[in-house]
Recover the amino acids of this structure.
């Protein structure tokens, strides 16, 4: 779920305290609303530089461990009491509150009582890029791979062909909700993508007898809004979002698909896979990188293990080239995966047009927006796909489009829009032949200009409204709607309640802290053994650190457990010092155990509770 | 994708080796020079020309002195979207492979040597060639059976290993001759520039006769092809002269193979006219004549005729009868399969293939490359037209409606019978009449596929008809009368698809054809491409039955010519009076109106 969607669902009261955050209020203007600010990558960049190290580290940990999947807060705490990134559990708890305050992390409750935290999906790549950048040196510019594989067509080209096949023939659904095999095979046949090139097919709808490539096309088509489920068929009817995508410059459209593929194809329960996919976007386009260098720099082991699989998909999707030489495998992006390039062009007005040759072949350069191809597919068959695609005006395609209601004038208009010129004589003659040969029914001219060449639905069923409206009708996945797997979905407000309470930045964050003597938190002091034990137990409960004196030596300790034996007890934990600049704890590699009698003056280091904690002794 | 775009760069390089060249951009000529060197032109239907890099084109470039670095550097500089990695790799790989294997004579043996002995071992392990090689004890060379020289090169080329053939050719029996000058005297060579360039591309630079002991390696492409190859020139551009040029350069006994007896006659006439050869030195080897002379012109048909039901090819000894130094395959795209096989055994003899359309409807262009040789020279049709070497031609497809009876039969006929009904549309006769009226004073050919139709049209219009049944002498008489202007128009069956030399024919009306045959369409246009006196334009009409399958067949037939840059205007036949604005309606009983101005009656 995106930041804007979340803000829209938040109660006014929550929006009010979010607007007061020191990292938010200065960005708000009359034109820039809260949702704009919280989704603003520039503001995120400023935050990443200036926010407290605790909050930054906590966010990095969230990105690494959970991505944009919802998670319970206790999963963030150091496992088994051991610090994952140095900060104590109590500090991380505070960090969560800071992140909520700054509109970075949101909390929600489920009807049965779970409380989950969530990073907005659209901000996940932003934070990943800011906090966990992949730093790998490219190979020298002159290096090229001896074993460079042939380039594949960009995924948008494949999908346009698949979706156009659905437009021509429809994709009828059986009573079971599965697409009919024959038409599904036709969809797969329109693509050159091979099933083995699709990673993590478990993320695709489990339709019996449907090739994974067709399932992928449907999955992405529904998510992108190019397809819609009608009562008994999947039909190609771009919604407003898809129409915007169709008009995008080619590079931007491809990048949008890359982001969509990351969201749709990667398993939600394996955030490391998504982390790998996102991290690869940090590599500069058109530069070769050694695969082993990339893997070595991945933020997590799971991400490192997932890297190879995702690279294979990138190659199959035409977004990257791969190759190898004596020193190993390498890849290079053939698109700008992260941000728009200054030279990106491709709107029709900007010259993103194709050439229609007298031999009826259309030469379609890569900068042509997807919408132009989408229209061209009505009248032409793709012959080849490489740096440029070659289409040929095709009598069968034209006749089929004609039976769907495409008029001759509309076909000519498609070619004129796509080429920016009048239809060449030979093409005009061919079109007239194909529109006139079989004495078609009266040309209905039913296609609206708004559809930019979209024909009427292939099935009468298409006119019937479908459930969902977000391209994720439940019937498609037999109760497992592709998009509904994500939480919260567009209708999440029914299933989740956003936590509208303001962040707790006081001792109230730690249960019972208000009831203990304030001195326990302010300065070290000598206590009775039983009180000392209580201090230790409280610290373990809050996952906080202790400062204690052992034979004149001050030790900061993160207690992990209390070992008891009769009247005796010992505390086992990990000592640490703090980094001078950031205050980040640097823990000892091993644990130490202190007996009750060894512990002198003691205090609990509860974050936010003791200003004196900055006057810490350095051991 | 969309990166590294250089808008003004004229080449679009694709990973499969296809290169598109935009003739509208400023660096076009520079890019064209590059692509001529490293790729071959596939088509040029508009301002985007399609070239293709193949292993053979790279090997040819390497043979001409190009390196991978230079080719890649220039290609990068001129490519709009950069050079895909796969193409870079292919270029480097194929450049590196050229020159690794060499075939030569040593110690009286034909030997294959490799720059790297391991490569030789790999080659010897290839199943397809292992039986032909015997690797020497020291592993430095392999002895090759002389009779498999052609097959070995073919198989190794197919496996991606080009062989530089330095074993040379037999020079053949010397045959002193000279080219006559343009005026018929002995003033010197009379080849046009492109014809001379084609001969040079085949045999190397001027003066290089390609001696048996390695001289064939000189001359760029000639060395890669081993002094053999195919020259592609448009119809009417004088392919015969290229053959005669090669013959005179090599000055050796030569066997010329042609598709039919008309062609035999024409070759013999040209040889007499253009060279100092005497009649006693030129022989015809056909069904009716078996003259084996220093220069012998034979037909494919006689070579492939068998002696009896189970007999062998009784005329194949012709290949061994004399010490031929050169074999010329005229209209090589028609080369029959048995001659392919025989050609494989003739690798010690230089081979020259001539054609206007290196398009085989059976898809065996690869065999032409492997056994006759690669394409060594091609002149685009439109280039020669611009330079005035062939006539400018306007092409027009005329849509003719079926009459009521034919339309009814067409509608009821099974699919396989429809094209004939459409092709024989009786109304085409009135269109032919109108076109002949329109081109009054110009000499015209009416060409068709179906004899019944041709007889009917010829009968209605009073045209002499030439078919395959007509004795050769009669046929030639008619051609001669046509050439003298005594006959204004001829009706021709498909026997006239090739090698009919009627230089003054300025109008061709194709009334039916062989389904979607691209080469037939091109060859028929070729009948009228000889430059005309006063630079008159030639006119080619293809009559197509409207609203029938013939329309799509016609579109396919036209593909080759369209890809060469020709444009077809599509017009619709209208009866007199149906269209008051039709110019022809006022001129004749019937007219042709533009399909663009108004779609018919």
């Amino acid at each position: 779920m995106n930041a804007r969607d979340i803000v829209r669902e938040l109660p006014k009261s929550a929006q009010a305290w979010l607007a007061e955050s020191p990292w938010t209020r200065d960005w708000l203007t009359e034109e820039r609303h809260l949702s704009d600010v919280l989704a603003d990558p520039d503001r995120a960049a400023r935050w990443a530089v200036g926010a407290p190290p605790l909050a930054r580290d906590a966010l990095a940990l969230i990105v690494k461990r959970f991505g944009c999947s919802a998670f319970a807060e206790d999963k963030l705490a150091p496992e088994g009491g051991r610090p994952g990134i140095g900060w104590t559990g109590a500090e991380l708890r505070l960090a969560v509150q800071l992140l909520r305050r700054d509109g970075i992390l949101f909390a929600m409750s489920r009807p049965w009582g779970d409380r989950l935290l969530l990073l907005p999906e659209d901000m996940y790549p932003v934070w990943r890029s800011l906090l966990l950048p992949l730093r790998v040196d490219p190979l020298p510019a002159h290096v090229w791979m001896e074993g460079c594989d042939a380039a594949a067509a960009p995924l948008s080209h494949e999908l346009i062909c698949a979706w156009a096949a659905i437009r021509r023939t429809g994709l009828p659904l059986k009573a079971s909700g599965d697409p009919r095999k024959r038409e599904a095979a036709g969809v797969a046949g329109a693509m050159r993508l091979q099933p083995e090139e699709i990673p993590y097919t478990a993320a695709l709808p489990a339709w019996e007898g449907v090739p994974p490539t067709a399932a992928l096309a449907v999955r992405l088509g529904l998510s992108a809004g190019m397809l819609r489920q009608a009562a008994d068929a999947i039909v190609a009817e771009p919604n407003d979002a898809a129409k915007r995508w169709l008009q995008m410059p080619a590079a931007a459209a491809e990048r949008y698909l890359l982001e969509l593929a990351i969201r749709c194809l990667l398993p939600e329960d394996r955030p490391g896979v998504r982390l790998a996919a996102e991290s690869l976007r940090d590599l500069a386009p058109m530069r070769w990188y050694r695969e082993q260098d990339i893997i070595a720099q991945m933020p997590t082991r799971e991400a490192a293990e997932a890297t190879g699989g995702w690279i294979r998909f990138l190659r199959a999707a035409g977004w990257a080239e791969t190759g190898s030489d004596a020193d190993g495998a390498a890849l290079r992006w053939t698109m700008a995966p992260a941000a728009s390039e200054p030279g990106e062009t491709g709107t029709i007005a900007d010259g993103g047009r194709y050439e229609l040759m007298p031999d009826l072949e259309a030469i379609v350069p890569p900068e042509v927006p997807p919408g132009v191809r989408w229209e061209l597919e009505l009248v032409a068959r793709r012959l080849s796909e490489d740096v440029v695609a070659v289409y040929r005006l095709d009598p069968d395609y034209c006749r089929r489009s004609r039976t769907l209601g495409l008029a001759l004038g509309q076909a000519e208009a498609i070619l004129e829009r796509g080429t920016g010129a009048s239809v060449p004589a030979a093409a005009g003659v061919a079109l007239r032949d194909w529109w006139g040969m079989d004495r078609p029914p009266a040309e209905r001219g039913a296609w609206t200009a708004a559809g930019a060449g979209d024909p009427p639905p292939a099935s009468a069923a298409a006119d019937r409204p479908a459930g969902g409206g977000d391209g994720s009708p439940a019937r498609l996945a037999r109760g497992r709607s592709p998009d509904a797997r994500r939480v919260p979905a567009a209708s999440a407000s029914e299933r989740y309640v956003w936590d509208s309470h303001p962040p707790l930045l006081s001792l109230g964050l730690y249960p019972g802290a208000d009831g203990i003597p304030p001195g326990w938190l302010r300065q070290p002091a000598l206590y009775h053994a039983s009180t000392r034990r209580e201090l230790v137990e409280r610290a373990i409960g809050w996952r906080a650190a202790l400062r204690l004196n052992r034979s004149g030596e001050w030790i900061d300790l993160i207690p992990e457990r209390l070992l008891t034996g009769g009247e005796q007890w010992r505390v086992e934990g990990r000592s640490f010092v703090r980094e001078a600049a950031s205050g980040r704890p640097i823990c000892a590699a091993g644990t130490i155990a202190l007996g009750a009698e060894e512990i002198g003056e003691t205090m609990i280091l509860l974050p936010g509770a003791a200003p004196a904690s900055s006057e810490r002794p350095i051991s | 994708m969309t990166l590294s775009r250089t808008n003004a760069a004229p080449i679009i390089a694709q990973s499969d080796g296809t290169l598109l060249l935009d003739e509208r951009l400023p660096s076009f000529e520079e890019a064209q020079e590059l692509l001529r060197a490293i790729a071959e032109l596939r088509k040029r239907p508009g301002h985007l020309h399609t070239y293709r890099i193949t292993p053979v084109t790279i090997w040819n470039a390497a043979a001409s002195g190009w390196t991978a670095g230079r080719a890649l550097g220039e290609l990068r500089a001129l490519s709009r979207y950069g050079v895909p990695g796969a193409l870079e790799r292919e270029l480097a790989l194929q450049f590196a492979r050229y020159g690794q294997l060499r075939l030569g004579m040593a110690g009286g043996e034909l030997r294959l040597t490799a720059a790297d002995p391991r490569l030789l071992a790999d080659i010897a392990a290839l199943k397809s060639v292992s039986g032909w090689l015997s690797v020497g004890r020291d592993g430095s060379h392999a002895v090759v059976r002389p009779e498999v020289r052609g097959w070995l090169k073919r198989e190794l080329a197919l496996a991606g290993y080009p062989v530089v053939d330095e074993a040379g050719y037999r020079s053949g029996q010397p045959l002193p001759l000279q080219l006559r000058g343009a005026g018929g005297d002995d003033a010197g060579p009379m080849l046009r520039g492109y014809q001379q360039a084609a001969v040079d591309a085949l045999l190397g630079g001027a003066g290089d006769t390609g001696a048996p002991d390695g001289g064939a390696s000189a001359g760029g492409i000639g060395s890669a092809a081993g002094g053999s190859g195919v020259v592609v020139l448009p119809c009417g551009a004088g392919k015969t002269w290229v053959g005669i040029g090669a013959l005179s350069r090599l000055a050796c006994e030569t066997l010329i193979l042609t598709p039919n007896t008309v062609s035999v006659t024409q070759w013999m006439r040209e040889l007499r006219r253009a060279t100092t050869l005497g009649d006693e030195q030129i022989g015809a080897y056909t069904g009716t004549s078996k003259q084996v002379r220093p220069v012998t012109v034979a037909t494919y048909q006689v070579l492939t005729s068998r002696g009896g039901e189970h007999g062998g090819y009784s005329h194949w000894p012709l290949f061994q009868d004399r010490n031929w130094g050169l074999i010329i395959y005229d209209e090589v795209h028609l080369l029959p399969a048995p001659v392919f096989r025989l050609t494989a055994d003739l690798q010690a003899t230089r081979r020259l293939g001539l054609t206007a359309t290196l398009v085989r409807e059976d898809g065996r262009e690869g065999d032409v490359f492997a056994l006759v040789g690669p394409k060594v020279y091609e002149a685009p049709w439109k280039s020669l037209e611009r330079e005035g070497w062939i006539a400018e031609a306007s092409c027009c497809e005329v849509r003719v409606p079926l009459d009521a009876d034919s339309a009814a039969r067409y509608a009821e006929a099974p699919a396989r019978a429809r094209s004939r009904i459409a092709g024989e549309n009786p109304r085409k006769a009135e269109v032919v009449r109108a076109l002949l009226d329109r081109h009054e004073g110009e000499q015209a050919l009416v060409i068709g596929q179906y004899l019944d139709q041709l007889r009917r049209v010829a009968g209605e219009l009073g045209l002499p008809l030439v078919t395959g049944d007509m004795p050769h002498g009669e046929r030639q008489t008619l051609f001669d009368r046509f050439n003298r202007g005594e006959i204004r128009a001829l009706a021709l069956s498909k026997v006239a698809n090739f090698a009919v030399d009627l230089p003054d024919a300025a109008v061709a009306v194709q009334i039916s054809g062989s389904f979607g045959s691209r080469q037939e369409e091109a060859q028929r246009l070729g009948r009228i491409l000889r430059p005309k006196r006063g630079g008159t334009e030639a006119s080619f009409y293809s009559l197509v039955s409207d609203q029938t399958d013939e329309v799509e067949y016609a579109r396919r037939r036209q593909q080759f010519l369209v890809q060469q840059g020709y444009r077809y205007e599509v017009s619709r036949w209208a009866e007199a009076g149906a269209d008051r604005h039709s110019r022809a309606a006022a001129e004749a009983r019937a007219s042709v109106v533009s399909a663009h101005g108004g779609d018919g009656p």
In short: Chain A is about 35% helix and 15% strand. Residues 341-350, 438-493, 611-619 of chain A have pLDDT under 50 and may be disordered. The first helix of chain A runs from residue 3 to 9. The two ends of chain A are 46 Å apart (CA to CA).
